[in-house]
């Protein structure tokens, strides 16, 4: 014969407070594995969501994001906003220039500081091509670099990486002048 737990507790002489306390403890103990499972499940879901964020967006959406990031990056030069310029660069970025490689955000910032001195930007750039890998994690942008009066003086190439926070940042950058292109053709 099966007795309900309430009836069994009454037969054992337990009062309502004791019975209620035991029920609360049993309920809590029964929920702990469920809560641990739910916590682990939520952490895994968040991890998967963040790692699949780029994959959940179409290539055209990601391309538009990189295009917008590149335009915002270029606007920092026009606006003379050195601090914002730095915010578009990854901590481990490498910028290649005439004096060699600038490695890391601090070196890039120091090397480019001179371009932000004065009221007028010495040059500007804008994208005319953006391509994003199918993984959605890396992108390439390129376009003309123009002097202060608008003449094209070079072409830039930048590699962008989507960081953990969902923000695109430059990890490689290199400008190439028409003179550089002609020298390479002469070498071949």
Provide a compact summary of the structure.
This protein is an alpha+beta fold. It has six helices and seven strands; from the N terminus they run ααααββαβββββα. The radius of gyration is 30 Å and the shape is elongated.
Biggest beta sheet summary? 7 strands, mixed
CATH structural class of the largest domain? Alpha Beta
Q: Roughly what fraction of the amino acids lie in strands? A: 25-35%
Total strand segments = 7
Number of helices: 6
Helical content stands at 40-55%
Radius of gyration: 30 Å
Order of helices and strands: HHHHEEHEEEEEH
- CATH architectural group of the largest domain: Roll
| Oligomeric composition of the shown chains | single chain
Q: Mind explaining what this structure looks like?
A:
This protein has two domains: 5-51; 59-187, Nuclear Transport Factor 2, Chain: A. It has six helices and seven strands. Strands 1, 2, 3, 4, 5, 6 and 7 form a seven-stranded mixed sheet that branches. The chain has helices spanning 5-11, 16-51, 59-79, 82-87, 105-112, 178-187; strands spanning 89-97, 100-103, 123-125, 129-132, 138-147, 152-162, 168-177. By secondary structure, it is an alpha+beta fold.
């Amino acid at each position: 014969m099966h007795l309900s737990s309430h009836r069994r507790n009454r037969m054992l002489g337990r009062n309502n407070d004791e019975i209620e306390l035991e029920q609360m403890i049993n309920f809590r103990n029964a929920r702990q594995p469920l809560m641990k499972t739910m916590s682990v499940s939520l952490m895994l879901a968040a991890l998967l969501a963040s790692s699949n964020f780029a994959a959940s967006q179409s290539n055209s959406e990601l391309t538009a994001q990189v295009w917008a990031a590149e335009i915002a990056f270029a606007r920092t030069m026009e606006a003379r906003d050195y601090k914002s310029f730095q915010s578009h660069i990854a901590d481990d970025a490498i910028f290649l220039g005439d004096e060699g490689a600038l490695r890391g955000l601090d070196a890039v910032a120091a090397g480019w500081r001179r371009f932000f001195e004065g009221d007028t930007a010495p040059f500007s750039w804008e994208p005319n091509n953006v391509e994003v890998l199918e993984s959605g994690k890396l992108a390439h942008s390129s376009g003309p670099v123009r002097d202060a009066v608008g003449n094209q003086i070079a072409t830039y190439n930048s590699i962008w990486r989507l960081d953990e926070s969902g923000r695109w940042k430059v990890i490689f950058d290199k400008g190439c002048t028409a003179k550089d292109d002609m020298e390479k053709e002469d070498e071949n």
